[in-house]
Write a structure and sequence with these properties.
Number of strands: 2
Strand content: under 5%
Largest sheet: 2 strands, antiparallel
Mean pLDDT: 78
Strand order of the largest sheet: 1-2
Helix content: 55-70%
Structural class: mainly alpha
Distance between the termini: 64 Å
Radius of gyration: 28 Å
Low-confidence stretches: 1-31, 36-61, 162-210
Shape: elongated
């Protein structure tokens, strides 16, 4: 039966003031197909017959950049780069052949990481011609950012030097493609140094050109599948290479045909590493893509023994590329459902990945895939036991020291899943010593990173008072004040939710919310009408919770900041629950003596509450009547 893995729901409140927040879907799909990245040989931009990079038309008819760039179905609705969330403009937006768009700076970063062979959003392949054109256009739009990425060389110099390079840049913009693997000599050239990094043991057979494929036509895949157990080693290599290539197409890969052939167990046996390393790598890649399909295909891979093979390779292979592919496979399987996630964990996936990711030679590509797979192993409901994922916590903590935004974001998502539950999960995150680091990451300015960080801090803040205090002591409140000005509504909403849970704490914690300047800022934003509806709702909880748990002097300070007027805005909202929250806040201020009957009249609070006595919501109407009976004067 099909099982699904849902985004982690936020837990129920452990007190009247502390609340769960419905989690939004993570931006990255839990399973990823690895696309074949072989690229056709075409002329470089600027050579004879090529249009200028800034206005080039790809053979598919999709503009790269400039005013002619399409703003159709694939253009981000919010006008922001889907990678870094910065605003897109006519001068910095670049378009892949598939139609997806991202900013020039992120495109250059992809090139520097040797990943400009496919769209980062849908994995549609990108020709070498378009890759070169996008690189040149990105450099122009990013005002020469290539100088910092490629050791001060200009974009033109990088392109002109391609035939002499042996590193990843040359592979993607000059060579004929092949598996996304690092080269052994990638540190021999200043350009390659920027895109290379540490390498593990070299696999000569992986550095060679892909084997000649002798299977073609309508029966090519069937022939290749039938020859997977050929006694001839070269034939077996060609066969598994052809099967992997067939499974690596974006549109309708032949998953059904491969599964129905009954050859998956044979691919799994190859993935266990008893033969050549290239054979193991290709077989793991094929299995990874089968596992990226629907639950039916993921289960078929598991039944064939994919988990055992991937776990063994992830933890014991001496080659970065094999470990990376094995982790990718584990991530796809664990991302299918909680049952398969637990199956991976029960067979030692956490321990194997911890060993693989701890290698000093781990490449950035392997680290990215590893931390993404790790985040899939710790997510979902019912939650995995802490003991089963314990080996991954030091790895996630180490990844938070990276300077790679993708690694940081996935590590932060991992901690958000672990902390989204009972207090022992929160305590486990705190014991990793990452709270100060996560508070520091709030200053990154990257929404893709800020969202999982603020969600983790919010989960910690919804724990007990000592756990909440960890966020305060790390400077969390001071770091969150500027987030109220974020153009991203999700960030503002989650920031207010986080501080609302801090405001539900002890009187000293309420004092911290006030002394940090957060309370004044949020009250002013409410009064100005700066927040959208969701953020205003969360902001109301900040104010109301503080009135419930704060000292009389805190209540007096809040009245001086305009808390009464802010709560009156809540009375005007159509949400009955927020109307009740606002009523509770006004009642708390009045009972503390900080809000006098005259204040209630002058602010219009009494009149607004009186109108709610006729609310169609019986709870709101009853609360409004009780408020008027207690605080309204005879004049009112």
């Amino acid at each position: 039966s099909q099982c699904s893995l849902q985004a982690a729901d936020r837990r129920e409140p452990r007190s009247a003031g502390r609340r769960s927040l419905q989690a939004e879907s993570r931006h990255q799909a839990p399973r990823v197909l690895r696309i074949s990245n072989a690229m056709a040989s075409t002329a470089a931009p600027g050579s004879a017959g090529a249009a200028p990079a800034g206005e080039q038309e790809h053979p598919e008819g999709v503009a790269i950049c400039g005013p002619s760039l399409s703003k159709g179905a694939f253009y981000p609705e919010d006008g922001c780069c889907p990678v870094c969330f910065n605003d897109l403009t006519d001068t910095n937006a670049l378009q892949f052949a598939c139609g997806h768009v991202q900013c020039a700076a992120c495109t250059l970063q992809l090139f520097a990481q040797s990943e400009l062979d496919s769209c980062p959003q849908c994995s549609a392949t990108c020709s070498r011609e378009r890759a070169k054109a996008m690189f040149l256009a990105a450099d122009q739009a990013a005002e020469g950012m290539v100088h910092s990425l490629f050791d001060g060389q200009s974009a033109a110099a990088v392109v002109s030097a391609l035939p002499d390079l042996t590193g990843a840049a040359a592979k993607y913009l000059s060579n004929d493609g092949g598996p996304a693997l690092e080269r052994a000599d990638s540190n021999d050239h200043p350009v390659a140094t920027a895109v290379g990094g540490a390498t593990a043991a070299v696999m000569p057979d992986l550095l060679d050109a892909p084997p000649d494929v002798n299977f073609s036509g309508d029966t090519g895949l069937a022939d290749a599948l039938s020859m997977l157990d050929s006694p001839d080693a070269a034939t077996r290599m060609n066969a598994v290479f052809h099967v992997r290539k067939a499974l690596s197409v974006e549109e309708s890969p032949p998953l059904q045909e491969v599964v129905e052939s009954g050859r998956l167990p044979l691919l799994v046996s190859m993935a266990q590493g008893s033969g050549p390393v290239r054979l193991q790598f290709e077989a793991l890649w094929a299995i990874t893509n089968v596992a990226s399909g629907s639950s039916e295909f993921t289960n078929a891979a598991v039944e064939a023994g994919a988990i055992e093979a991937a776990v063994a390779a992830a933890g014991s292979s001496e080659f970065n590329e094999v470990r990376e592919q094995a982790m990718w496979c584990i991530g796809n399987i664990a991302g299918d459902c909680a049952r398969l996630r637990d199956a991976c964990l029960s067979q030692g996936a956490a321990e194997a990945m911890a060993r693989g990711m701890s290698s000093e030679s781990a490449s950035i590509a392997m680290t990215r895939n590893g931390v993404w797979a790790a985040s899939n192993l710790v997510r979902g409901k019912p939650k995995p036991s802490l003991s089963s994922i314990a080996p991954l916590l030091p790895c996630l903590a180490r990844c938070l020291l990276s300077d790679d935004a993708e690694v940081l974001a996935d590590a932060s998502w991992g901690f958000s899943y672990i902390s989204d539950g009972p207090n022992d999960g929160i305590e486990a995150v705190i014991e990793c010593g990452v709270v100060h680091r996560m508070v520091g990451l709030l200053e990154s300015g990257l929404p893709s990173l800020t969202v999982p960080v603020i969600r983790t801090l919010g989960n910690i803040s919804s724990g007990d008072e000592s756990q909440t205090q960890e966020v305060i002591d790390a400077g969390g409140l001071d770091a969150m004040v500027p987030l109220l000005d974020s153009p991203k509504r999700a960030i503002v909403k989650e920031t207010c939710w986080t501080v609302s849970n801090i405001a539900a704490g002890s009187p000293s914690q309420v004092d911290s919310v006030i002394s940090s300047g957060f309370m004044q800022a949020v009250i002013s934003k409410i009064a100005e009408g700066s927040f959208d509806g969701d953020s205003t709702r969360e902001a109301m909880w900040v104010v109301s919770n503080a009135t419930a748990g704060g000292s009389p002097s805190a209540a007096q300070s809040m009245v001086g900041m305009g808390a009464a007027m802010a709560l009156c805005r809540g009375l005007e909202m159509s949400d009955p629950r927020i109307q009740q929250v606002a009523l509770e806040g006004l009642s708390n201020l009045a009972q503390s003596g900080a809000l006098t009957p005259e204040d209630l009249t002058e602010t219009g609070a009494i009149d607004a509450v009186a109108e709610l006595q006729s609310s169609p919501n019986s709870s709101v109407a009853a609360a409004a009547s009780a408020f008027c009976e207690q605080f309204a004067t005879s004049d009112d």
